[in-house]
Amino acid sequence: MLYAALIADLVNSRRFSIGERERIQKLLKVCLEKLNRVFRQALQFDVVFSAGDEVQGLFISPQAAFLYARLLRLFLAPVQIRCGIGVGQWEVKIARGTSSEQDGAAYHRARSAIAAVKAGTVIDSAGEGDLYINALLGASSLLAAEQSYYQQQITLLSELVFPLCQKQMDLKAFGDLGELFAGKIASESAAQAKRLKRLELEPVALEAFDLAALENAAVALPIWKKGFSTKLAARAGTSRQNMDRLLRAAKIVELRNIDAVSWRFMAQRLGG
Which end of the chain, N or C, is more open, meaning fewer C-beta atoms within 10 Å of its C-beta? Predict the structure, then answer.
């Protein structure tokens, strides 16, 4: 059986003040606790701190590791993270240990992958499909990096109410992520949070898109429902026309399409 190790850390973390770093570390800690619950069925070992601001975990599939890294990036934005996903054997097994006590090809490749990226996500499975998957992941990171702070939070809100999901994800636990979003916004500076005061953050009503529907599709299925911008506009306290303009400017639908196709490519080439 092949496993997927995920290693992630903050980009340019030394540039943060002590106060900023403390706030980010607290947010990261809560993110790991919440996301570990969402991905419980896909985790061989929880994602935990391994050294400083670096975190790592072991998954039963690369697709789950990718979706975890994707959500972690959305919650931490505008703070950037870099993620390496390594696919391979889990050979040194410490059954009652943590992820940082395990070892094997999956971990070695994850370490190699994170060393090759400045921001975003890179996968290393030692397969020819890595080139194409990483090109898609790079395009997604590039578009996401161009978003404003407000656009980043609307991207996260859209994911909370219409998530891309797979069968190992616990959607009941996913529904609790609205509380995490509210806590994140409450911790932001007054200047950053000013435009977000109108957001209706919770409760989150899920209308999940099951990515398994893409596995055998000749073309990618639409992953954005008609009328969904109206629902987002109501949560953001703005008009549908304004929300439509924001969605276009932030490339939110395009980002979801790229991420969904990345998942599909992993499923086809790497299995799991």
Answer: N
